[in-house]
Write a sequence for this structure.
């Protein structure tokens, strides 16, 4: 069982103060230890509804998410540079401390996608791919060998590091394309993608993320699939939360809440033929990943389907 709500908030606030006092968030023994403690605090099951906590806690949470995002970017750049020093960088991905989590998340997202998407997508866009595009690498290598991945990031240096990782791989270097572009300036190209992934840290606050989602709703093709990463319970101290009502112009198919070390929830939705400003009432599906690696979908407390997650 997780700690009480009061203890959780108190402990998170203490960690926030420590992180705020640091001169740098670049990987170091101290930085790594503090973030490890934060993750260990937020991952265990806890009934806390973080988004309903008082305003002063919400302000702290918003700042903490931005700190986590900055630190995550610095960590990915750090390890991307290390991996890029090898002749075959992808042979050494296990040097990245969270690589196993990406393997599990990739497997989870592939199985979720397979439940709602017939066939194999021809073109996928990943928005916010960063300097270490592990999701694209894992999906392209392990699950979607015939799919082309278009990776979008606003940071030219991040794309430069990412390109260096796959340049030595004949297959992936042909199927992974990198675009240095703000996704808000991409319009017609979005219609070409069967599936669009939106990284958890694209849009670090609610308003920014909704703007991105509305832009995707305006320009994606009807019937195309959108996959987003969200957070649930205490994990919402680490990442922004996507509410189904934020997805105007999309039909929400399912929301998956893992309870293991995979931190992010996964939201899958389908672009409707309705304009982005038209409000819809999606069927909200909460899905919990149990220790037997099965996903149970619950609608208002009643089981509506059971999906098997393959190892």
């Amino acid at each position: 069982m997780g700690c009480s709500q009061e203890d959780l908030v108190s402990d998170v606030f203490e960690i926030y103060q420590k992180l705020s006092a640091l001169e740098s968030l670049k990987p170091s023994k101290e930085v790594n230890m503090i973030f490890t403690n934060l993750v260990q605090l937020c991952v265990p099951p806890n009934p806390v509804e973080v988004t309903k906590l008082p305003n002063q806690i919400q302000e702290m949470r918003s700042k903490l998410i931005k700190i986590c995002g900055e630190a995550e970017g610095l960590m990915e750049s750090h390890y991307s540079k290390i991996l890029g020093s090898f002749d075959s960088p992808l042979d050494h991905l296990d040097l990245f401390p969270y690589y196993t989590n990406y393997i599990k998340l990739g497997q989870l997202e592939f199985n979720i996608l397979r439940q709602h998407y017939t066939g194999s997508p021809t073109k996928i866009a990943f928005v916010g791919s960063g300097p270490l595009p592990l999701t694209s690498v894992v999906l392209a290598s392990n699950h979607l060998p015939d799919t082309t991945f278009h990776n979008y990031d606003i940071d030219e240096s991040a794309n430069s590091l990412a390109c260096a990782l796959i340049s030595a791989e004949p297959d992936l270097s042909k199927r992974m394309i990198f675009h240095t572009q703000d996704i808000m300036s991409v319009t017609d190209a979005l219609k070409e993608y069967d599936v669009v992934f939106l990284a958890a840290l694209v849009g670090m606050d609610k308003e920014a993320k909704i703007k991105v989602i509305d832009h995707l709703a305006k320009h994606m093709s009807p019937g195309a699939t959108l996959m987003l990463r969200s957070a649930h319970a205490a994990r919402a101290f680490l990442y922004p939360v996507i509410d189904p009502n934020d997805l105007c112009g999309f039909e929400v198919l399912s929301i998956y809440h893992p309870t293991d070390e995979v931190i992010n929830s996964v939201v899958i939705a389908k672009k409707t033929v309705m304009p982005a400003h038209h409000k819809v009432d999606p069927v909200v599906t909460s899905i919990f990943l149990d220790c037997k690696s099965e996903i149970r979908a619950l609608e208002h407390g009643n089981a509506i389907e059971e999906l098997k997650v393959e190892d």
Summary: The first strand starts at residue 123 and ends at 127.
